[in-house]
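quick q for whoever's on today - can somebody do inverse folding on this one?? i tried earlier but teh output was garbage lol. tokens:
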């Protein structure tokens, strides 16, 4: 699995009661979660800055 760089965008559904405090997003928002179908194995990243982004988009 590749590291996420600081310029990449991660999209997550957050739950304000456990993932925010005083209007600030907590690191817990990006922890892998336990879901009804089992634990998450990864999070999705929109890698528009990845070297193959334009080639990958053309395939879609």
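ok took a stab at it. sequence:
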């Amino acid at each position: 699995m590749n590291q996420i760089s600081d310029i990449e965008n991660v999209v997550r559904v957050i739950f304000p009661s456990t993932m925010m405090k005083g209007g600030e997003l907590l690191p817990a928002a990006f922890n892998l979660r336990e879901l009804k179908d089992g634990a998450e194995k990864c999070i999705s990243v929109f890698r528009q800055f990845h070297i193959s982004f334009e080639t990958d988009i053309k395939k879609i």
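fwiw The chain has one domain: 9-59. also The radius of gyration is 14 Å. so keep that in mind when u check it
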